[in-house]
Amino acid sequence: MTADDAILIAPSILAADIGALAAEVKAVETAGADWIHVDVMDGHFVPNITIGPFVTEAVRRATTLPVDVHLMIEQPERYVGDFVKAGADRVGVHVETCPNLHRSVAQIREAGAKACVVVNPATPATALEHVMGNIDQVLVMTVNPGFGGQKYIASMKDKIETLRRWIDAQDHPIDLQVDGGITPATIGHARAAGANCFVAGTAVFGKEDYAQAIRDLRKQATSPQG
Ligand code: DX5
Ligand code: ZN
């Protein structure tokens, strides 16, 4: 069963002007964004430090859109509850940080959010095979996490295709999201492989006109691949 054929665009606030965060979030909402993507980094799992529940709460106050929190932190189970309390509708944990993955996804759902599992570029799809029945979202990283503005790794295609097949074989909806290097030039590649939800940092917040940037992404997502 497919989650939804609609294309979902999730701008990442990592590329926003954090000094004007509420206005930036409202601006992309007005510009046609579907979700707001919040990148949480701890300086351990990834070589960068960003934000926590406190700032997530400010994002929550600024929008009625789903708040999609991507935890790039070690021992994410220590903080899942705090992010859901801060207003996260969706929480993603990396399989590389969760030795007891079933317990981690159950924790997210019990806290009241949709559960997402994230895989780094070097992690195979098989890492998710036994949790497909317990999750609401899969995130395939198309860069190594830590920074915005990196180059899309096109060889993730096979993994996205495999996960699309597994998702379609489930009897509950699962969104298939990609994150990293998504631009009008790469979005069609990920869409053709089966992704339905696209995180975009610099391809939205790096542009003057957010509405035009989101329209360009949607348009290129469905244009034929060369
Ligand atoms: C990378 C983050 C991404 C990042 C994407 O570690 O998970 O969400 O913001 O940025 P772009 O779209 O610029 O590659
Ligand atoms: Zn992200």
Written description of the protein model:
The protein is α/β, with parallel strands linked by helices and 226 residues long. Helices cover 32% and strands 18% of the residues. The protein has 8 helices and 8 strands. Strands 1-8-7-6-5-4-3-2 form an 8-stranded parallel sheet. β6, α5 (157-168) and β7 (175-179) form a beta-alpha-beta unit. α1 (21-30) packs across α2 and α6 (187-193) crosses α8. The longest helix is centred in the last third of the chain and has 12 residues, at 157-168. The relative contact order is 0.18. It binds D-xylitol-5-phosphate and zinc ion (ZN). Residues 12, 14-15, 37, 39, 70, 143, 145-146, 148-150, 179-182, 199-203 line the site of D-xylitol-5-phosphate (DX5).
Tell me briefly what this model is.
With 226 residues, this protein is an alpha/beta fold. It is built from 8 helices and 8 strands; from the N terminus they run βαβαβαβαββαβαβαα.
Bound compounds, each kind once, are: D-xylitol-5-phosphate, zinc ion
Sequence of strands across the biggest β-sheet: 1-8-7-6-5-4-3-2
Q: Structural class given helices, strands, pairing?
A: alpha/beta
Query: How much helicity do the residues have?
Result: 25-40%
User: What's the total number of strands?
Assistant: 8
Nearest-angstrom radius of gyration? 16 Å
Shape: globular
Number of helices: 8
Termini, distance in Å?
A: 28 Å
